[in-house]
Amino acid sequence: MKVVSLTKPKYKDIECMRVQTRILQKCNCPHISKLYDVFEKDGMLNIVMEYAAFGDLWSLLSRQGVISEKAASALAKQLLSALDYLHTVQRVVHW
């Protein structure tokens, strides 16, 4: 679960988070973590997502340091597949 304070970010950032969570709720792609629930309580935005055993990509790369070309290729394919899904199915343009 990810918890984000709604009292500190600017209004624009809060609205952006809400839009992103609405998009994620509609996603059904093996390379995008599933979003199970979003709720606001006590000035906090609570985001319940699929468990990622190895963490996010940044954490993985931070732990691993250098990765093989084969691993980098596999990661790139997954990222591009997720981006293709967002662009073609969800009609999202990254901003």
Outline the structure in words.
This protein is α+β, with helices and mostly antiparallel strands. It has one domain: 2-Layer Sandwich (Phosphorylase Kinase, domain 1), CATH 3.30.200. Helices cover about 45% and strands about 20% of the residues. The protein has three helices and three strands, in the order βαββαα. It has helices at about 10-25, 55-65, 70-90, and strands at about 1-5, 35-40, 45-50. A three-stranded antiparallel β-sheet has the order 1-3-2, with helices on one face. Strand 2 (about 35-40) and strand 3 (about 45-50) form a beta hairpin. It starts with a strand and ends in a 7-residue tail after the last helix. The model has no long low-confidence stretch (mean pLDDT about 90).
Distance between the termini: 24 Å
- Multimeric state of these chains? single chain
Helical stretch tally: 3
Structural class by helix and strand composition: alpha+beta
CATH fold-level name = Phosphorylase Kinase, domain 1
Return residue spans where pLDDT drops below 50 for at least 5 consecutive residues.
none
Strand order of the largest sheet: 1-3-2
DSSP strand content: 15-25%
Mean pLDDT: 88
